[in-house]
Design goal:
mainly beta, 4-stranded antiparallel sheet, 1 helix, 34% strand, disordered N terminus
Length: 273
């Protein structure tokens, strides 16, 4: 009962957030696969959904207003406060869709991936896109969370494959590629130089973060759509599978145990204690 109430509350909060955005920004209430994340200090909430990304005050839920160098609110041609929004109302296109949270590329820059397979560098303070129409990637759609670490961007593609990209170059060239039989949907995790990621091809992979070498892969008997969760003891992973089970997998790739579920396990497990 508690889990159902919590889920209902989360859905209600997300719906309220979308209604607030609709009232403030003229957003269309379309079918979306939205993503929320916190960024900055003090933290702001970044909401990526459909054809736009908006920065919000996490306390009030109101869009963050842009200010000039003197701290005054910036106004548009009609005298309305300008808000932190990517892209602005005049540049939106149904062809550019965002379903994933950004990653912090550096202190001044957020990096967003569009579903159409382009990377957008966005100025954290102003919401201005620094690289125009975006930098194309491998020609595949991206609807999956990103991981950035020490000059490298790790991401999976919806159709197949997982890549490490070099963020030190404006074109984000690939450093290495893992070939998978199906898409990679969940956010990877990085532990002591090893990337752990999972795929719809049923496998959990452990990869050398620098070279992409497959250290091991373990078949969990069903598609995996979410990120592995690291155990509280830092020695194993919890992974849900469409095989109607939750698995505990050691960092050596061995299946330690499993718990049956009544249906697909879609999301990432939460670890407490």
């Amino acid at each position: 009962m508690f889990r159902n109430a919590r889920r209902t509350g989360l859905l209600a909060a997300l719906l309220l957030l979308m209604l607030v955005l609709s009232a403030c920004t003229g957003a269309r209430l379309e079918a979306v696969w939205g993503s929320l994340s916190l960024t900055g200090n003090p933290a702001s909430l970044v909401f990526a959904y459909y054809d736009r990304i908006v920065m919000l005050d996490p306390v009030t839920g109101q869009p963050v207003q842009l200010v000039d160098n003197d701290g005054n609110t910036r106004l548009d041609d009609q005298g309305n406060p300008r808000i932190w929004e990517v892209p602005d109302a005049g540049q939106r296109s149904a062809q550019v869709q965002f379903y994933t949270a950004p990653v912090q590329l550096d202190e001044q820059t957020l990096l967003f991936a569009s579903y159409a397979g382009r990377l957008f560098e966005v100025d954290t303070a102003t919401g201005r896109v620094n690289n125009g129409s975006g930098t194309p990637m491998a020609g595949q759609s991206v609807g999956d969370p990103l991981l950035a670490d020490d000059g490298t961007l790790y991401l999976g593609y919806n159709q197949a494959d997982f890549q490490a990209l070099d963020t030190g170059h404006s074109t984000f060239p690939p450093l290495w590629t893992l070939d998978t039989d199906h898409g990679v949907y969940g956010k990877p995790i990085l532990i002591d130089g090893v990337i752990y990621t999972a795929s719809l091809d049923h496998n959990v992979y452990a990869l050398n973060a620098d070279t992409g070498e497959v250290l091991w892969k373990t078949d969990l008997n069903g598609a995996i759509t979410s990120a592995p969760a690291l155990s509280a003891t830092y020695d194993s992973l919890y992974v849900g599978s469409f095989a109607n089970a939750l698995y505990k997998v050691g960092l050596d790739g061995q299946i330690i145990s499993s718990v049956p579920a009544s249906n697909w396990v879609w999301g990432t497990p939460a670890v407490s204690g």
